[in-house]
Amino acid sequence: MSDFNKYCQEAAQEELPDSEDEEDIGDEDTCSAKELAAEFQLKYKPQDEASVSLQREYVLSLAADQGFTRIAAGLSSSAVHIYNLDAGAGKLANFSFLPPTESPQPVSICGIRFLDEGPHNILVGTTDGYVRLYDLRLKGEQARFKYTQHPEVSPVPKSIACFDRNANGRIICCGTDQFHSNAFLLFYDVRERRQMGVYCESHEDDITSVRFHTQNPDLLATGSVDGLINVFDVKEADEDEALLTTCNTESSVARLEWHRNVYDKDIVSCITTTGDFKSYESEEGDEVASFERPDVTAAIRRKRAGNFNLVGAHNQEDGGVFLLAGTNFNKGEILRSVSVTSKNNLQPLANFQGNKQIVRDSLFDAKNGLLITGGESGIVTVWTQDSSGAAGSSDKLKVKKDKKSRKQAPY
Question: pTM for this one?
């Protein structure tokens, strides 16, 4: 019996609470169907879908290799499904399955990342404090990273909430929940399979997102429930010198992303736990854009901000940024995108028709114009532009661009 079939049989005996079971609160568009079609001129349709389980499980995290030839979906059970993706046809094919972590306590995925440019090496982070390295050409895990001890940190944090690897695949950084009044950034050397060091005074509450710059391997952004976004140069000698910028969102950070503006400056964007969107220049910390939950709700032409769900912020091939947003109404039926055209303006962009779930994570392949989503019904969906109802394939999601004390560093 395969690992996947064995897992499905065992999982079928369990039930996962799902927010989709909650009673929907009425919601509707703020304009007519004709006006909606005129404003959201790009129409996307599901080109292919894959169900990750025989029962209902959340897809919490998605990852793609650099060439978008392989997609990994991490589940609420800590299992990982891996698919080959034919970007030209927008089709998924089963490739591999990593079974759930064996643990006496409930364990969930806290992130997945392909380690390098290729599609073979993948990192899987779980809430029990481990990041595991798998080579998909071989059987079993190849390495395991977990915090052990540090002379300046006691007691030892036992779980992680998020992680990332840097641009050259050498370093892993993990963010922990608050533990004994502290939250930690833990660093590991991937090649030498060793713990490198820790930042232990940068955040005062759960660290919810860590993101290395996509090209600069030394640049790291971190976000926390304390509302701070910190940007570090991790090659500096100590934590105080490593800290380059601190931005106070005056909210709680849920997700970070890196962008680059028309002036070739690095931008860090943030989605807050309350569904707001904010972005800042990484060097100076100046606010670039700020949209509260009702602003984005209005931009996707929906009435009730209470149903609103901001999924992610994505970079386009021409350097623009769009927000993917939907609602929790009617099992997540509404899924739309808006482009960030200026500091104070959001422009309707695309309508994703036929959505079947509340979306929890998304990926965007700017080269091929593909959107990948995963969510609370356990479905991985590949979205492609519906040319029969769109302005033309050359218009794929393109928009006009506008203009504390710190301790020892990891190395």
Answer: 0.88
